[in-house]
Amino acid sequence: MRVAATNTRLCLVGGLLLLGCGKSDGRTEVSAGDGPSTVTKETPVLATTSQRDAGVLTDGSEQISCERQAFASKIAIAEASGATWMSDGSLLVIGDSGTNGAYLKLSAEDGSVLKGGSLPLDRGASDDLEGLSRIGSTLYAITSSGYMREWQAKGDGFALTRKSYSIAPKSDTESICASARDSNCGPNYEGLCLIPSAPRDSPCVGYVAAKATGKLVCLVQNDDGRLAIRPEALFAVSAPKTLSGCHFDRNERLWFGNNVFAASAVGFITGHRDPYSAVITRLGPLGLGFPEAIAVGTENRVYRFSDTAGSPSLLDKYICR
Fold this sequence. Notes:
Strand content: over 45%
CATH class of the largest domain: Mainly Beta
Shape: globular
Radius of gyration: 19 Å
Number of strands: 24
Largest sheet: 5 strands, antiparallel
CATH topology of the largest domain: Neuraminidase
C-alpha cells in the first residue's frame, strides 16, 4: 500500500520542545508494506522566543517492518501497567492498582514466567504503579499521581530501599496530584523510562510519560539520588489521553507507545539528548487489547503489554528493523 508521511514541525521555545509550532505544507508519498511499517519522521525546527523561524525543516523516510514473533499471548497478572528490560536479559512486569505491587519476571525469548512476587510498598502513596524502569541495579516505579519508589534485588525478590517521594514539590499541583494516594489525576503518569547507565549529572536521566498531556517529561537525579521532574524539558509526542508508556533501547533511542485511542501506535526519538537535532520516527500500531506498557530489548525486540482491567493480561513481541 501507499501512505502519506506528514512532517510536523517542533520548536524549542523557552526550553520547551513543542509540537505544532508550524506545519510543513508538503506531503511526501512513501511506499510501505503490509502491516505496521509506515514511518513518519519529524525533524525539530530550532527556534527561540526571539527567533521563531530559525533552523531548517528536513524530511526523510525509510521503511521499517515490525514482525510479530512467537511469544506468550497472556500472563497471569492483573492490569500489566509497567515493564522493563533487566540486566540479566529478562523482562520484569508489574500490575496496576489493586495488585499490591505484584510482578512477574518473564523470559524475553518466549514469555514464560521465571518467577513472581510482590514489590514491597510503603503506605505513603498508593499501589497504582504505572511505570517501571531502572538505573544500574536500582529499580524505580512511579504512580499515576507522581510518586516514586526505589528497590534493590535481595535474595529471590526485592527490598524497598527508598519509600515513596514526590517528583516535584508538593506545591506544584501541575506536576503531581494533590494527594499521593489519588490515582489517574493531574498529568496522570502512565510510563517511566530511565537510561540504565545514566550518570547522575545527566541533563535527563530519563522521562515520565504524562498521559493527560501526551508529553515525555525529563527527569533529573538530585544529589541525594532522588529523581525529580524537569518540567521545562519535554517532548510532545502524542495526543492528550493516549500516551501509555516509554522505554529506552540499548542505543538510547527513546521509544513510546500509545493506547487504542491513538490506534496503539508506537514510535521512537533518536538523539533525545540534543533537542536541536532529535528526530521522532513514528511507526504503525503494535499490540493487542489495550496496550499500555512497552519494553525494548536487544536485537530490535519490542514488547507490548496490555492492561485489560483484569487478569490475565495480554502481551506481544515484535522485531522491528
